[in-house]
Amino acid sequence: MKSKTVLLLLFAIILLNSCNTGEKNFLERMFDLESRTSKNAPPSTVEDLKKGIAKYMGDVEKTAKSMEKVAVYWRMLALRYMEKGLYGEAYDTALVALRHYPDSSGLYYIAGVSASFLSKTAAAEIGGGRASKSQWLEVAKNSFIQATEIDSKNNKALYSLAVLYSFDLDDQEAALETIKKFLEIDSANTDALFVYARALYGTGDLRKAIEVYDKIISSSRIAEKRKNAEENKKILMDELYAQ
Hints:
Elements: H1 2-31, H2 33-38, H3 46-83, H4 87-100, H5 105-118, H6 130-150, H7 155-168, H8 172-185, H9 190-202, H10 206-219, H11 223-242
Helix pairs in contact: 3-4, 3-5, 4-5, 5-6, 5-7, 6-7, 7-8, 7-9, 8-9, 9-10, 10-11
């Protein structure tokens, strides 16, 4: 029995030494830079980190260029969807592209146009989708505003925002302020002049609205637009002199 106890003690001592040796080797491996590198662990010293950066910089540049190309494709895809009238896809794609180009006035314009069209789909929802329509119009407005804040000369965004204010939100004061900014850049744009006249009428300035219609009648080369301006002018004249 005594000899058996001695053997067990010897075995325990050997096992303990073996564990200590294993632990020591494990710690050495963990903190040994060459061992870490051989196990694909990242280097820890400044010099070795610099060496690692230099070694893999090419891969980083390659990845960055690939991501840049992907971002360009997302932006082009959003534009193509909008041009084809696929506004749901255009809106979703524009949001993805904006993660790559958060300062892109054009992408906010695409998002705004898409949201304004998506607001019209609310009519197909149960109950008329009044809340949904309001939300989409708010998204459209904010998108156009952001587009113009990034690029104050983004005519498309300015025009779309003015139309949104005048026709969808019935905010003629805001429409008037916005379309004036557009006309400072493109004073002869017939479509913008129609929006301008509508906003003037909506704010109660009938005489000025009539003057704008006169400008359209005398300057537009499109017969249909001249006819529309003449009809609108007559309505305003009748209203003005009936007062």
